[in-house]
Amino acid sequence: MIPYRLKRHRKRQHTGDSHMALVPFIDMLTILVVFLLVHTADVDILPNTRNISIPQSISSIKPHETIVVMITKDEVLVDGKSVVTMADVLASTDNIVEPLKRSLSDQAARVLATADQDTVAEREVTILGDKNLPYTVLKKIMQSCTEAKYGKVSLAVLERDTAA
After folding, report:
1. 3 state SS of 60
2. Are residues 80 and 149 in the same domain?
3. Residues 116-140: what's their mean pLDDT?
4. At 73, which CATH number?
5. pLDDT of residue 77
6. How many other C-beta atoms can be found within 10 angstroms of the C-beta atom of residue 78?
7. What pLDDT, on the 0 to 100 scale, is given for residue 108?
């Protein structure tokens, strides 16, 4: 006959094992969730709009986060904020769009308040415009970007599957 104290000891020992087997499983699931959250952030950075059809290219370089100048039929936006209307850009005889230049300079001043002077030449801006955009407008936008002291001006394109 087994003493009562020994029965209690065996009963406690048995229930403790099932609880201890669950802890590594929960730890593994936590690590998996964190891994998936970190690695699902690899998405397109450029904003997607319905009223702009982006030109195609065979570019293989992935975009990274920059200031985005979006040119629609009606207005020019810098990071989603309206800067100037297209009517004003088309009516202007000057090659530089002053409201755009001011907005880009303000953006750079906020970003580079703590940066050193070496990063000024490395500032980047991405132009997101329709493929049917007149070249005169594109030229004015690009010159305004370079006048605002942005060293790298990129045009947003869609990657084509094969070369033409």
Report:
1. coil
2. yes
3. 78
4. 3.30.420
5. 87
6. 20
7. 74
Helices (H), the chain: 4-39, 86-91, 98-111, 135-147
Mean pLDDT of 129-133: 82
Task: Decide which of 24 and 12 is more confident.
Answer: 24
pLDDT in the model for residue 92? 85
Q: How far apart are CA 119 and CA 123, in angstroms?
A: 7
User: Residue 3 is part of which domain span?
Assistant: 1-42
Q: Backbone dihedral region of 118: left (phi > 0), alpha (psi from -120 to 50 degrees) or beta?
A: alpha
Q: Extract the tokens encoding 46.
A: 């450029």
**Residue 106: strand, helix, or coil:** helix
Is 3 inside a domain boundary? Answer: yes
Q: What is the pLDDT of residue 55?
A: 66
The band of 112, judged by pLDDT with boundaries at 50, 70 and 90, is low
pTM: 0.59
Looking at residue 61, what DSSP letter applies?
Answer: P
d(CA 155, CA 126): 6
* Residue 49 maps to a domain: no
Residue 2's identity, in one-letter code, is: I
Query: Structural domain tally of the chain?
Result: 2
Both structure tokens of 94: 């000057």
DSSP 3-state of 58:
coil
